Each structure stands twice: as C-alpha cells, then as structure tokens.
Amino acid sequence: AASVRSDIRNCSADPPYLPPTATNTTGRLAALRGTMRAHNVQAYIVPSTDAHMSEYIAQRDARLGWLTGFTGSAGTSVVTLDKAALWTDSRYWTQAERQLDCNWELQRTTQIESIGLWILQAVPVGGNISLDPFLFSIDTWNSYSQALQGSGRVLLPLDTNLVDQAWGDQRPPAASGEIYTLPAAFTGSHWQEKGLGIRQRMEQHVRRPTAVLLTGLEETAWLFNLRGDDIPYNPVFYSYTLLTNTSISLFVDDSRLSVSARESLRAGCPGPLCVELLGYKQALAHLLHYTQGNVTVWLGTEYTNYGLYRAIPEKKLLEESYSPVMVAKAVKNAKEQELLRAAHVR
Description:
Blueprint (H helix, E strand, L loop, with lengths): L25 H13 L4 E5 L15 H6 L7 E5 L3 E4 L5 H7 L5 E3 L4 H11 L5 E4 L6 H11 L5 E4 L4 H6 L12 E2 L2 H4 L3 H14 L6 E4 L2 H8 L1 E2 L12 E5 L3 E4 L7 H8 L8 E4 L4 H8 L6 E4 L5 H4 L7 E4 L3 H6 L4 H12 L1
Parallel strand pairs: 1-5, 3-4, 5-6, 8-13, 11-12, 13-14
Antiparallel strand pairs: 1-2, 2-3, 7-9, 8-10, 10-11
C-alpha cells in the first residue's frame, strides 16, 4: 500500500482513483460528441497547435487543454463517439496521468502511424474522420491522409471547429491588446526596406513568383516592425500577410493598431508600398480570389496550415520549407547584432 502513488490516476481501481489535479471531462466530451453527431463525424482529431503552427499558443487556442485537462505543450487527441485517447511524448507521461480523468486512454507515443492504427480499430469502414484543416500543417495533413489511405474511411476537413462549438461562450475572448510599432532603435531597418528586399528575392527566383504568403506570426511582426501580446511571453499578434509584386495585404484586427502603427503602414499610400488592411478572417477569401489569376504563390511548408494551402491550385504554388521572409529574418543586420551583444553583456 505504501508504494501506491496518490498523485496519479488509477483507473483500474474500484472505484477508480483520480488525484485532485485531474479534470472532469465527461461534460466536455458529451458536448463535443453532440457536435460530431450533428456533422456525421465518427472521429475528431484535436491537436495542440494554433492556425500559425506557433510553438506557444494563447489560451483561446488551447483546445486540447480544455477538452482533456492536459496542459502539456505537445499532444494530439482523438475522440470517437464512445472512446477518447491522448498521444504525447515522454516529457509529459506523468503529467498526463495527473491531469486526465478515466475517460481518456494515454498513448505513450506521438507517431501519426500509431494514431492512424487506433482510429482504424475504433472507427468502422465508411466512417468519417474529421479535423480542422487550419490547425494542421501541410505535412501533418499528408501524414494522416497516408495513414488512412485505402482503409475505407474518409478524412474530412471541416472549416467549422467542433471543439469551439462545444466550448461555446466559455472559450476565452480574442486578443484585444494594442499592436504597436517597434522603435527604429531596435530594428536597424524600416519595413519598406524589408518589403523591397523580399520583392527583389521574388524577381531573382527562377520561378518568378508573384506573391509571398506569410502565415508564421513572427514573419509579419518582423516584416512590418510591429509587435503585440496575443500570446503570453511572445511579442506577436494574429495576422497573415500576402505580399505581391504590386500590393501588400495585411490581415489583422486593424482596430487594435496604434496610431503610429497605422501611420507607418499607410505611409506609402497610394503606391506599391501601401498596406491594405483587411480583417484577419478575410485571408482565405482573399487568397481564393487572388489565385484565380495568372499567379504563383511562394510559401513556407513548415508552418503554413493546410486550410490555406488547399485554397491554392497546385500549379500556382511555389513550396519551400521556409518563406523568403523567414530566411531574411534569420540574418541579423548590424543594429540587431549590436543589440544581441549588449543583451548578452547585460
């Protein structure tokens, strides 16, 4: 008896033992399964990411944490109409045993092959396996598609997030903090210089792309010398950017822009360095409209979500692991190098 741990769950005990750190997810699972039935979904996959494949996420995007009670930074859950399982790596196995209730199976791996095999055993032939395509990278979508290929099950992307529907008005509100300009003393170059540099890279590329799609939050923040506080301890804000050879579209909640930020973005209007401000949720519709023309869109596959990727016809795609903005951002200018040295001295 002395060797029995009291800080982790014991689902084989009678009655099952749950530590005080475990979350009761019975009601949450019932709500999710109700939305699944309404959409004729037999299994729903929930990742720990946001739409920008961010390493850290805001509470509003912590769908996995709300659904399971598990707050580790990496994991995937699958819910069927009668089962639920969580996959995570060895950093979090003990934490998961402390936070999960007995509604959940803990799978001690992160391999998509393992998730696929579990789904094939849990979902009968003809069943729909669904996910939110805006929360999965291109590579991850392809891995799930391959794992389920030829199985008689359908991998069905749903633009409506079923966890959000179940979460309802208890979901944390959208970020509302100010988006502000980073002073020139910290940047070493104006955003217009950066924009012209990216357009130069577009012209020099053998495929001559007509646009670069920026989906990583740090890309847009770096390009425009803007900062925000949408994610704790990360100075970024929710946004997308479509930088073409003749125009610039920034998809953001523009009501949050400081006066100086707005002035900076609109300083080049009218002209090729004029930034058109559009709503964050307009990115998909704008991209669909833009790609109807004779265009080529350059993007980074490591962090572009499948929801936006599938909107671009394959022949109009230029795919590389990282966008030219991500590559340019990695090369620090003289001012940035000076500040890095000063930070290390401090």
